[in-house]
Amino acid sequence: MEAFSNVGNVELVEGRKISRSIIKDKDILLVRSVTKVDKGLIANSNIKFVGTATIGSDHIDKSYLNSNNIFFSDAAGCNSDAVAEYVFTSIFEVLKNNLEIKGKTIGIVGHGNIGSRVTNLSKALGLKVLVNDPPLKRMNQNLEFSELDELMDADIITLHVPLNMGGPDSTIHLFDYSRLGKLKDGTVLINASRGQVIDNNALQKIIDIKNLNVILDVWENEPNINTMLLEKVKIATPHIAGYSYEGKVNGTVMIYNSLCEFLNIKPEWKPTQKQAEVLNLPERFDSLEGLLHKLFTKIFPIRNDDTDLRRILNFSETEKGKYFDLLRKDYLLRKEFINYKIKKGNLTPDLLNTLNKFRFILEN
Question: Which of 4, 32, 64, 265 has the fewest CB atoms lying closer than 10 Å?
């Protein structure tokens, strides 16, 4: 609200409660992912600008906006580092009893802002990387691509695709029962993209058969998620992979600047910068992976988020969805790795290089 108060009068409304009656006399609509913006919401309104402070925009009917000369802006890339950090924090937590990941294979489905970061970090850790991204492949990007079926033998598979509702690059149930059945036993499967990319009912049926190590941040039918599946996954979080302070600030800045450009006014708001925190390394660690696991979980205690979400099992069916939304609404934004300083000390060049790749600040 602070960023936009100098632009005009601001009214705050819960995302799922935004209605035609509320916005009919408004000029600007700013949302996050829970608000469906389409003809049903904004027809016959005064809305001239729609902004979503999210990297995904499948909740926005962009064709309708375009055909009605309504300007649209998203925040693509704003929390890419946060999601990449979520991926590796969760991988290291799931594999903490066998952290020798160097030489393992990771399959990365989708190679945009997030997937490309995951690739760079994977290589820094010595992982073999396989990338699948048909649209980028057609664009002849200077990158070696693999067919999706080639990724099924990977030790780790992580999904970073948009939600495409149809066409040659449809991602609805990209991982259906048939494809899930091709995964090798014990695969670590991560979805921090969109819930519908994996058929959750199929995953519930096959997860034990294939002994899959599943990490889910996104779910079909949010906020009314499949709680039987929830009980089977290794790590479960309520769509917060990108919920970092920096991600929120980046998204706000991007939408604010876009709105100022649309209104032809000079941007005046600047976010408050947080000071970096000194992070002391443990005196003893058995391996680079062991050290990273300790660092990651100290900064981002992901098991706390997992525990919070599993409490949904104690709620009635009518209250579960409300609790899921509340977890997101009241989420305490974490700081990204770039906000932590580490003394170089006697650390090896390989370790320093890895810490640098993960954007830690290294000091003498």
Answer: 265
